[in-house]
Amino acid sequence: MHFFTDQTGNTISLASFPKRIISLVPSQTELLYTLQLNDEVVGITKFCVHPEVWFRTKNRVGGTKDLKFDIIEQLRPDLILANKEENVKGQIEYLSGKFPVWVSDVEDVQSAFDMISQIGLITGKEAIANDLINNIIKGFSELRPFVPSTKIPVGYLIWKDPFMTVGGDTFISNMLDACGFQNVFASHKRYPSITVEDIKRSGCKVLFLSSEPYPFKQKHIDELQKELPDVVIKLVDGEMFSWYGSRMLPAIDYFKKLIQEVLVTCIG
């Protein structure tokens, strides 16, 4: 029997490498694909859109916060992967009484690496996981020539009505920092509600509107620009900023391009 302690401090026991895995987290589903666990993954959520081939062919067990227990039980998983923030505590506690559930809690790059490493270890894909981590580390080190010497103050919106942003204790804020941006709401915790007046007072020079969870569009830029005429407002790919796991690798080139665009706009 092998014992594994997850990122919330709970320990699960497994007799062998899991053969029937259910992922309840979109970014971790993509990671499982990268770890070459096609045959082992038997269930995903309706929000696990990457890879597309899995989205089209794997069993869906509901949404991240609206799980279908009957489908999960029919799939007889020997491992369920969940996340403290993305899944509902009560639902995970219920499943933990029936199946081994490993829960991640990712707030920064280091905890993302720990998650990747642990899932690699649990599934017998440790070598692939370590290669992925090393490639991400190398890629993020290459961001340095692009990062401005003086951090540009930015805001990042994830929701509308009310507007919601990201505090300093989030993975997204950590990604902003890696890009050389200063999160103007870093003193806040998690995902606070804010107003346009808060943005005005923050000293924000660039405002990012994320593609998820709220799907901001050009019309929202146009609306906000009227109230924030001196702020550069840009749409950004939310998956690149919030999907911890293998998505961190392609995010590097995306960040390089975004940094250059912001520097041209703000500095010239």
Kindly describe this structure.
This protein is of the alpha/beta class. Strand 14, helix 9 (218-227) and strand 15 (232-236) form a beta-alpha-beta unit. The model has no long low-confidence stretch (mean pLDDT 96). The protein is globular. Helix 6 (126-141) packs parallel to helix 11 (248-266). The chain folds into two domains: 2-139, Nitrogenase molybdenum iron protein domain (Rossmann fold); 152-266, Nitrogenase molybdenum iron protein domain (Rossmann fold), CATH 3.40.50.1980. The termini are far apart. The protein is built from eleven helices and 15 strands.
Top keywords for this entry?
11 helices; 6-stranded mixed beta sheet; Rossmann fold; 268 residues; 15 strands; single chain; alpha/beta
Q: Would you spell out the secondary-structure blueprint of this structure?
A:
Layout: E1 2-5, E2 11-14, E3 21-23, H1 26-34, E4 41-44, H2 52-57, E5 59-60, E6 62-63, E7 66-67, H3 69-75, E8 79-83, H4 89-96, E9 101-104, H5 109-123, H6 126-141, E10 152-159, E11 163-165, H7 171-178, E12 181-183, E13 193-194, H8 196-202, E14 206-210, H9 218-227, E15 232-236, H10 238-242, H11 248-266
Parallel strand pairs: 3-4, 3-8, 4-5, 8-9, 10-12, 10-14, 14-15
Antiparallel strand pairs: 1-2, 6-7, 10-11, 11-13
Helix pairs in contact: 5-6, 6-11
